[in-house]
Every structure is written in C-alpha cells, then in structure tokens.
Amino acid sequence: MGMWAVGLGAVGAALTGIFLANTDLCLTKAANATLQYLEDADLHSTTDEKVIKAKSLWETNGAVIMAVTSKEASALSSLKPQLEELGVPLVAVVKEDIGTEIRDFRPHFAGDIYIDEQKCFYGPVKRRMGGLGFIRLGVWQNVMRAWRSGYQGNMNGEGFVLGGVFVIGPAEQGILLEHREKEFGDKVDTADVLEAIKKIVPVK
Q1: Is the pLDDT of residue 167 over 90?
Q2: What pLDDT score does 98 carry?
Q3: What 3-state DSSP class applies to 93?
Q4: What is the pLDDT of residue 62?
Q5: pLDDT tens readout for residues 28-53
Q6: What distance in Å separates the CA atoms of residue 190 and residue 204, rounded to the nearest whole number?
Q7: Where do the coiled-coil regions begin and end (predicted)?
Q8: Which of 128-132, 151-155, 181-185: highest mean pLDDT?
Q9: Please, which residues have CB within 8 angstroms of residue 130's CB and are 6 or more apart in sequence?
C-alpha cells in the first residue's frame, strides 16, 4: 500500500507539473519597454562594421522590429510589400551571432538584421522559457511548424531567451504595438501589425 501511495503521489506531482507548465502561471511576466529605453540601444550591423543607435531606425518613417529568438520570420516578411508601400522598414535584431545562425536566418527574413548585444529589445525584464518549455504543447507545435518550414532553432548561447515584435512610430508617436513571446515561436498576429503601421505618421 505504501509503494502504491508513493507511486500515485509521483504521478500526481508529474501531472500537476505538466498542467502548470501549460499555463501562464510559471512564466516570467513581461514588462513593457519605453521608447526612452529602446532608442539608445547600440545595434551592430551584420553586413559591415557600423554601429547605429536604435532610434535611427524609426525616427523618420517608423519601423517594424522583430527581436528574434526562434526563426519564425516568414509571417512578418510576408508583409514586406505593404511595408514598402508605406515606407516603413522591417528590421530584425538578434542577441548574438553563434556559428551560422545569422547566415541561416537571412534567407528567411526580408529586412536588415542587427545584433543587440545589450539585449534591450528583449527587456527590460529578460525572460527565459526554461526547462518547462519542453513540456508545453504550444512549444512543440511551434517547433514542428518551424522544422517543417526548414528553420533550425538556436538552443546555444542564450537561445532560451524570449523576444517579441515592436511597431514604433517616428518622433513622439512612440511604441504603437508591443508583442512579447509567451513561449518559443509565439508569433504576433500580422493583422495587429498592419493595424499598428496604419497609425504611423511619417515625419515631413
């Protein structure tokens, strides 16, 4: 009877862990970024040696900026024609460049790519998925979708850090959309992105 009780207790604990891992209760809460926090970030070009201030990306026409953690970039890239029509650049920032990560990512993203060594676009509270991510159903669904699309995930370095997507208007328009990943591959709704960029008023 004692062994049965121990076994049932272990099963119960495991099921409770799986249940909690598939809710938002164990996730680090995201803190909204401010324009002042983002604009002074130093971004390193991946095509030359230039380092720019982040605010230069959006100070005239605004920008859509994807803080990359997984390689789910095709949905945003599909908006490139609408963004070009409005004169709004599409940009990706990555945390680091390990191995062939950026080279492998580049064919799947229709915009410029910068390295955010300070990880400003992943903060102000840097969030990690952690080991519980491997028992979240949504994570496995996203991983399989990315794998079928030919993407390879990065679990090296700080590959467990969650990112997001920003739509930022010029001047004092500020942050018009801020989407934070809740789990790996949690993509932003492209309809929300389009709605946000329609609010951008370019600086004359």
Answers
A1: yes
A2: 80
A3: strand
A4: 93
A5: 565 688 899 999 999 999 998 899 99
A6: 27
A7: none
A8: 181-185
A9: 160
Contact 106, 152 (CB under 8 A): no
Q: Is 78 exposed, middle or buried (0-12, 13-18, 19+ CB in 10 A)?
A: exposed
Please give the pLDDT value at position 185.
Answer: 61
* Nearest CA-CA partner of 26 in 123, 121, 119, 131: 131
User: Which residue from 124, 155, 141, 130 is spatially nearest to 187, judged by alpha carbons?
Assistant: 141
Distance, in Å, from the CA atom of 93 to the CA atom of 97, rounded to the nearest integer, reads 11
Q: Note the Cα 36 to chain centre separation in Å.
A: 20
Tell me the chain's radius of gyration from C-alpha atoms: 19
Amino acid letter at 92?
A
Q: Can you tell me the distance from the alpha carbon of 112 to that of 93, in angstroms, rounded to the nearest whole number?
A: 9
Residue located via tokens 């969030």: 127
Distance CA 39, CA 63 (A): 12
Task: Give the whole-angstrom CA distance, residue 188 versus residue 182.
Answer: 11
The candidate with the shortest Cα–Cα distance to 149, out of 185, 182, 113, 123, is: 185
Indicate whether 137 pLDDT > 60: no
Lowest-confidence region among 10-24, 28-42, 181-195: 10-24
* Omega cis (within 30) before 124: yes
